[in-house]
Structure formats: structure tokens, C-alpha cells
# Entry
Amino acid sequence: MGSLLLANEAIALGAYEADVKVVSSYPGTPSTEITESASKYDSIYTEWAPNEKVALEVAIGACFSGVRSMCCMKHVGLNVAADPLFTLSYTGVNAGLVIVVADDPGMHSSQNEQDSRYYALSAHIPMLEPADSSEARDFVKIAYIISEKYDTPVIIRLTTRIAHSRSFVEPQERIEIQNKPYLKDVSKYVMMPSMARFRHLHVEKRENDLSRDISLYNTNSIVLRSQKLGIVCSGAVYQYVMEASDASVFKLGMIYPIDFDAVRTFASQVQELIVVEELEPFFEKELLSQGIQCHGKEIFGRQGEFCVSYIKQKLEGGLTTEKIKDKIPQRPPVMCAGCPHRSVFYALKKLKIKVCGDIGCYALGALEPLSSVDLCVCMGASIGMAHGFDKGNTGEGENTVAVIGDSTFLHSGINSLINSTYNNGTSTIVILDNSITAMTGHQDNPSTGITIKGQQGHKIDLYRLCLACGAGSVRVVDAYNIQEVTNALKEEISNKCVSVIIARRPCALLNKKYPPAYFIETKKCIYCKQCLAIGCPAIENLGNSVRINKELCVGCGVCTQMCKFEAIISEGK
Amino acid sequence: MVQNNLNILIVGVGGQGTLLASRILGTIALRLGLECKLSEVHGMSQRGGSVVTHVKWGKEVFSPIVCQGDADYILSFETLEAIRWSDFLKESGYIIVSNQEILPMPVITGKEVYPKDAFKKLRDKNLNVIEIDGLKLAELAGSSKAVNVVLIGMLCAKEKIELDLAKEAIKHCVKEKNLELNLIALELGYEAIEKRGI
Ligand SMILES: Cc1ncc(C[n+]2csc(CCOP(=O)(O)OP(=O)(O)O)c2C)c(N)n1
# Structure
């Protein structure tokens, strides 16, 4: 029976129906649910790898060994996996290999808006982009056929609005694929210069072959309507265009390589050709390079997401109809009540420490009232940046620490820690160990030792790991204890070696058996507002008094450390 | 009964159950024999930020996103969020607002103030506003978390969708242990509209 699936779930269904045997990924919004759904199928071995590079390498090994494999990530994850990606393009595959990458125009949950289509272009890897969930499932199957026929990895590109939208999908019959024998072939699988030169020829030939064959796969489609205007588009934008205009539409399903002949024929049937695409002018430049006249980014912007009304207004050239917004308070995301990161950031702020931040829930430490994160670039960057401040010799390093989550530390922080100890650094690193990958929706990781299938694996001991990496001092503190965190910070900053403070407490959303909530005894409270300084969403400022919202309070008790008047009392007392 | 396209926006604060609400509405659409697309929010803004989920029903649905001025219904689980998203309502549309107030961080830190006259603000825009103490009804049903289902009950009553069909959809989407209270919440919402005769 059919149901409404996220495109992410439909990709997993496609993997199941196409008899994919191995999925290795690292979580990242908006791609995470693909791997989570894949893990529900018994026939698919699924795992969380510590980062995208490792994940892709696992998928490469699996496909060489003879089974279909898949690797999923968000757009910036492909940067991490880019090294194996570019050479995988040369080796090609044995059984099929599909990489799913989810872009995030509008940056709902990302640090940049990069356009993954350029990876397809520069690595010469075919790329498909579905426009709804059913197509997402279909494209997975087509991708494996192409992968095996042309001896190439294939990338499926999603954007947030496809990945996280539900539409109807009817399951289809599952095929069973014979494992392909692995045959030793150094000319194909060992990429050293002499072999790689030869494989580079293969890359060019297969791309030419596929370019000629694109129409065989029925991934593109044409809707002939008005002859005045023809629009070239793909993915979510196709859905917007269909509502926004009565133009004829050329919907690209295979977005690299592009079927130029088909687009040229389409162009000859309409008076004007416009490319509507989010982010970069990728199609536009490709078409222009082939002498296909079109317009695109002179009409449409490169920023953010499109929607029906934006496209309509741009095509009709009318004035912006955006209404004046009410002046009302913003509602930025916040650390949850009971979040163990909060108290650490409060301690850092009190000590006026510069914080090289990292990516995870704790990036919210940059927002008011904690406002203590100074820098945030990409996953794992905090430790390297702190070392750079240290070695910059400007004295700026002295009061600087790196703050990084457990998952992020294991993703790409370890290498930086090794760099700091090897190069005689002196930085202080705080690992916020909430024992989960929280930001992306609570995935286990090597520090929990539980696999995605719920099995027990080896649990990495962060303490011993940091010692083994050469840290001169490693200590574990209770993240909820502001005084203990403060003391540790003071001591370790003055230590002339690389030191690591592991601030430990599980994410408050993990164990829902909370202690009783707290309340404020109004007789004792003098409305000094100290408790508000930690920015807990459960503590509300009523203008002349403070109240704890017992619906939100999870009884962590961090706020009691803020109150000099002992006015914050547990309901359990 | 729903004849044509129906665009619904579900708005609230991360963690208030917008995802379950949209899934129930999706199931109702399928049972009505309509095409349906839902667009959800996962990730960053689920951490207590402002969240919006789009639901589109119709004979043929392309975009999964509801545009400004194009919503037939806005279901809002929180008052401030109702104002924030009210521009999305059609002139003929209804905004059903549970009058709960959840203070955002800039208000907690004292940088900004929570609007005192929120409902007046909404009515001044000439919108069809239906105010409800959703929290009270949800608690009556057995859990403060069921505000989402109360509001779905109201929407179903307004659209004259059979209560039994909506109940089937709830059974399909809700865990067994929470089923009873959600069915009650649905009925309470449904009755709230019928009683008002709107
Ligand atoms: C290269 C890359 N991969 C994935 C992500 C998505 N992502 C953002 S934060 C995060 C993990 C955060 O986990 P952790 O460091 O444990 O911090 P927490 O959220 O638990 O506080 C991930 C996977 C990303 N931003 N960049």
C-alpha cells in the first residue's frame, strides 16, 4: 500500500527495492533520514561512519567487493568526501555505487549555500535530481543501472524542499541482484599515475557515451504549454514553475551531463528560453557554452530558496508585493531547557574567554544572552583555529579555547588535536560530551558505542583517546557544575601544554525521566535577574518578577547556582 | 466537503508537534481521495525556534510550499507565531489560534516585549480569527501535548470532514498508548466549532 513518504524515505525504499546491500553515511540535515530509514530494512547493512570521507570509502569498498552500495550526506559533507570522490570517478565501480547529497538553499540548517552540481561537473560524475518522493525512489533505481552500465559512481542531488517534503509513493517489487565477483584488476582499482592516465581516458569516454544515451533513461520530461516561453528547470523549482506560469517546461532529471540536443530542440519550439534555478547559474552557463541562447540569473537571484510567488513575480516583471512585516519579537532557535552546553558557555562568558566554536547545537552559544562563541566555520575547525590563534604570536591565543561536541570531535577534531600536540601547541580544548549527535536529531556515534542498528559496538573512550593523542592534561568535569567548569578552565588555560576538558552530561532530550521542576519562591526573590543570564527558555521574565515555566523546566538545577538568595526551589523538596 | 485545493499552514514553536499534525492531515487527504504534499521542518529550528509545516491538498498538487496570501487555513499553536505567519492567509481563509504564549529568548532577555494585544493585532488585519484555549481542551483530553489534534478537530469541523474519517487517520498516525486521549482531543476540537456554529 502506498503512503506519503519524505523523499529521504523514498530514497531508502529505492535502495531496498534495488537490492542495495551497504549504506554508510554521516548525518547532516537535510539528508539524515535516508540512512535512518535504510537502517530499518534487514537486507541493508547500514552504519554511521565518523565522517563523510570514511563513509564514502566504506561504500567504495563495498561496491568493489561486489554489492550495490550507497553513501548519503549533506552538501558540505561532500567537501569532506571530495578526495575519494574525485578518484572514484576514475576507478569507476564494480557493483553500482550511488552518492546522495542534499543541498540546503536558504540555509535552513547549514553554514553555507554551496551548490553541489559543480561536483558533478568537475569530477565528471552523472547527477540526477528528482522533483518529488516517487521520482526519488525511481531515480535511485535508474542511478544503479547507469552506475553499472557506464562504470561510474552516480550522484543523486536533493534540496531541502524535496528531501523534507512528503508525497505519495507506491512501493514496487524488489529485485534481487547477484553479487558481482571481485576480480583483481590493478589497472582499474589501483590509481597510480600510469594507471590513472589510462582511467582518465575512460572517464571522458563514458561521459560521451552517457551524453549520447541520456534520452534512453527517461529522466527528463517536457510539458508543452505556451509557445511564447520555455523554461528549463529541475527538482523543487519544477514544482514551483508549474504553478507559477503557463510556459512550456523542460524538466531536467539528469542534471549532469545535460541532454543538450533535447534542450536545443525544445528551445526551437518556444520563442524565448529562460532557466529558473536556485543558487548558481549552473544550467544557464552549461547551455550558453553550447550556444543555446537563454536568460537566467539576470532575472532570478542566487540567494536562498525560490517559491511560486517569487517566480511568478520575476517572470511577470511586476513590483514586489511583499507586505510590510509586523514588528514582533523574533524567535531564534535556543538551547533546550536542561541543555548541558548552557552552563559551560556561561562559565566561558564570565571568564571573558575567546571561543573558537564548532558546528552542533552548541553553535547556539553565539546567540544572546550567552553570546560567547567568537568563531564558527565548519565541522572540526575549532581546534585548528584555536591553535592558529595560539601560533599567531599576537598574544591573542592566551585567552582562547576551542569548544567542540563529541560527534564533531570524532568527525574531524582528532586530527587537529594531533596537530596541536605534535606542533607544541598550548591551547585548551573543551569537548562538550552530551553523548549523542544532537543537532541532527540524536544519532549515536563512536562515543556512545551503539550502532545505527542498535547493536553494541566499541565505545570510544574520549579521555584515553585525548591522552593518546598527546594532550598534556585531560580531565572530565560535570557540565552542569558552573564552578567546576570555571575552575577547570582557569587552570587549564594557564597550563603550558595542550589540555582537554571533557564537559560531560547527556543531552536533556535523551533521558526523559526528569527530576521535579523548580519554582521561584517569590518571598525570597528580589528580582535581581541573575538567573536570566543563563538564557534558559524555561525562566521567564514577567517585567517585575521571574517565573519558571514548569511545562518546560526539566529540573537540571543549573539556575539554582545563579541565585544568591536561594529562591529557586525544587518542587520535589 | 473539500472540493478543490486546500492549503494549510501549521505554525508553532519547535517541539509543539507540528510534524504529527501534518502527518495526520496528510492521512486525512489520502482518505478523502486527494493528492497531498507536506513540507516539514527538521533540524536547527526544531530547537525552540519558529516552525512552519506546509500541507497542500488537491486534485493535482505541484509545489509542496504554501505562499504568502495563499493559505486557506493557518493552525497556530502559539499566539505570537500566529501574527508572524498571518500574511500567509487568504482573505477568505481562517486562522485558528490556540492562545498559548511561549516567550521567545529576546523577550526572556528583556530585549523585546511580547505583544500584549496580539489578538487585536490579528483582528485589525481583517482576518477571520478563531481563538481557542487549546491547552485547556488538550489537558481536558489528557495531555497538554494534544493541542495539535484539538486544532485538527476544528479544521475538520469547519471543512465538514466526517469525524469518523478523521478518527481513522488519527489511529493510523498515533501510538497506541496515546490514541485514546488524541481521539478525545479531536472530538473536543470538532465540538468547539460545532458549538460556536461557525
Ligand atoms: C561536514 C558536515 N557534516 C555534517 C554536518 C551536519 N551537522 C551539523 S552539527 C553536527 C553534529 C553535531 O554533533 P555534536 O558535535 O555531538 O554536537 P551536539 O549537536 O550533540 O551538541 C552535524 C552532523 C555539517 N554541518 N557538516
About this structure: The two ends of chain A are 53 Å apart (CA to CA). Chain A is about 35% helix and 20% strand. Chain A touches chain B through 53 residues (CB under 8 Å). The domain at 221-321 of chain A is CATH 3.40.50.920 (Rossmann fold).
